[in-house]
Structures are given as C-alpha cells and as structure tokens.
From TrEMBL:
Zn(2+) binds at residues 30, 32, 210, 291. GO terms for molecular function: hydrolase activity. This is Adenine deaminase. The active site is at 213 (proton donor). The lineage of its organism: Bacteria, Pseudomonadati, Pseudomonadota, Betaproteobacteria, Burkholderiales.
Length: 352
C-alpha cells in the first residue's frame, strides 16, 4: 500500500454503503466500447444502415446473451458490432457509454476499441477513430468526464495483422493514448505479439494486455516480462501462482478486474466466490470495471454494488478500489491528485 486509508472509512454507516459506491468518484479502465452497444442501439443502427441481423427483435437478441465461456460471448459480440458503419455510429455508441459512465460518477474512462473488428468489414480506420475521438471531446465538454482511447489488437488474429493495424492507425495517433490486447485468450499467449508491442513501446504508447482471465498465470508473467505492460486486464488467475502474486503486490501492478463479466463467462459462476476481496487483502492493486456492460448485465456501479453485496466488502475496500482506479489511470499525477481530493471529500460527506 502506498497510501493511508483515511479514518472516515470507519465512520460510514453500513446502510450508506450502496449510496457511497454510486457517488464516489472512480475511473473505469477496462471497458470495450463495442461491448457497450445495447440491443436497442444495435437495432436502431441496423435500421439506419440497412443491415440485416440474425435476430428477430431486441428481445430475441437479449435472450441470446446466455454465455458459457469467452468464445460464446465473442461470437455474439462480433455480430452486434456489424451494425457500425458510419462515423456517426461510432460517435453515438461512445456518447451513450460516456453519458452512462458520467452518471455513475466515472471521472476518467480509458476505453478499448478494436479497429480490426471494423476494418475487416471494410470500415475505414479514420471512420472508427474520428467518431470515437469526437465523442470523447464532446463528453468532456458536456459532462466533465475525461476519456482516453486504447487501441486493442485482436489476439486470435496474427501479429502481422496487428502490425498492419498499427500502421493504419498511426496517422491518427494523437487520438489514442495506448495499446491493448484482447479477444480469445487461451491458445494466443502474449508473446505472440512481442515485436509489435516492442514497437508500440518505442513509439511512446502506454501498454496494457488482457491476461489471466481464462488463461494461465504464465500468460500474466509474459504480459509483464515480454510485453512490459503497465496494467494487466483481468489477471484473476494470478491467484494460482504465489510468486506471481508477490511480483504483482511488490510492483503495485494494476489489475483491471471485471466481476460481472467473470460471473457471466463462468470464470467465477457465483459472485460470492470472486477473489477480488482476497486479492485486495493480499496487497494487490485491483480495480473494478465493467468490461462489456451491455452484454454482462451492468455498468461500473452495478459491478461495485453486486460484488460488494455478494462478498460483504465494506467502506475501506470501497475507498481502496476507487483510489486504486484513479491512480492507475494514464492521466497526469496532478490530475490524479485532484480526483483523490474529490474522493476524500466524498467519503467525508458521507461519514457519520
Ligand atoms: Zn475485456
């Protein structure tokens, strides 16, 4: 721990915990913008663009959201993204998410986007990035939420395809702050992307990668040692390796944990068994995030509320998780300190 938890945490009445979880300023660091597409918006965009969907209506699509593992989700996720064609579609999708995030008191969102999901369908890189970047700018002006974009490579595709994506995106590099790695984890270890991440690091991008969601601790080790990431997305399988837990704790490596995602994809079928409280108690720098909120049953506050209700965590853990999230952002230390002041003020206002 690099900070002292303020004494106000012991003066938060137990029945105020849900209100505190909702109101406290927080950062969301693990959210795929394509995973924020609600069924209603998917159908609205399909109609606007004349795209035929393999589902009769919103209810039929929502009924298909019964997943058994990561791949069963990804199949539907890519079908949903097929309605995104124009710059305005990307803008509308991102504004819908950012409005919800601002309402959840997210002060900073670092948002993944998957250009290959779109460029493979013939959508131009410029269309994707300009639509998302314009939304980030407008959301800051309208709701005061700060946002940054993280370009993510699809790991089930080749490293060559990742290089092509990077080169296509570089003309727009002022619009994204970092590079990530997502999609089907098992069988696609981080080291598959060693060279492209090395180039991204040399170009000055922040680096993150999904590792240890379904994949083994070895994938977390190679994300750290080979890709040299600054955050691990998920990382919940790290608990199987004591040496890895020590390394993560000693370096205060942020883990962007997504409780409802883990429940829906059967990583932890029962939230009561989620290892978030154990990882926090072990000194790990864990955070709470929504991953693909339209598909997994809730935005970031819903993740906080449900995992706290299921595991019995309290105000002290709430403070740690919010503060971890703010200090794990890629915003400046000065900006982070301002958000931490807001967090302390929020706890003070709710203390008895
Ligand atoms: Zn994810």
């Amino acid at each position: 721990m690099t900070y002292a938890v303020p004494s106000t945490v012991s003066r938060i009445p137990a029945d105020c915990l849900p209100a505190l979880l909702r109101a406290m300023p927080k950062a969301e660091l693990h959210m795929h913008i394509e995973g924020s597409l609600e069924p209603e918006l998917i159908f609205a965009l399909a109609q606007r663009n004349g795209v035929q969907l393999p589902y009769a209506d919103v209810e039929a699509l929502r009924a298909a959201y019964a997943f058994t593992d990561l791949q069963s989700f990804l199949d539907i996720y890519y079908a949903g993204a097929s309605v995104l064609l124009q710059e305005q579609d990307f803008y509308d999708m991102a504004m819908a998410y950012l409005q919800r995030a601002a309402a959840d008191h997210v002060v900073r969102a670092e948002i993944f986007f998957d250009p290959q999901t779109h460029t493979e369908r013939g959508v131009a890189m410029e269309t994707v990035i300009h639509g998302l970047a314009r939304a980030c700018k407008d959301a800051q002006a309208q709701w005061g939420i700060s946002a940054g974009l993280i370009l993510s490579f699809l790991r089930h595709l080749s490293e060559e395809a990742a290089f092509d994506t990077l080169h296509a995106a570089l003309p727009y590099r002022e619009h994204f702050i970092g590079i990530g790695l997502d999609s089907s984890e098992v069988g696609n270890p981080p080291e598959k992307f060693a060279r492209v991440f090395e180039q991204c690091k040399a170009l000055g991008f922040h680096l993150v990668a999904h590792a240890g969601e379904e994949g083994p601790p070895a994938y977390v080790w190679s994300a750290l040692n080979v890709l040299q990431v600054q955050r691990i997305d998920h990382g919940v399988q790290s608990e199987k390796d004591w040496d890895l837990m020590q390394r993560l704790a000693d370096t205060r490596m942020p883990l962007t944990v997504c409780p409802l995602s883990n429940q829906k994809l059967c990583v932890f079928p029962d939230l009561r068994d989620h290892n978030l409280p154990r990882m926090l108690a072990a000194g790990l720098n864990v955070t709470v995030n929504s991953d693909d909120p339209a598909y997994f049953g809730g935005y970031v506050n819903e993740n906080y509320l449900q995992v706290f209700a299921a595991t019995g965590m309290g105000a002290e853990q709430a403070y740690q998780l919010a503060r971890n999230s703010l200090e794990a952002t890629f915003a400046s230390p000065e900006q982070q300190a301002l958000w931490v002041q807001q967090l302390d003020a929020c706890f003070e206002s709710m203390a008895a």
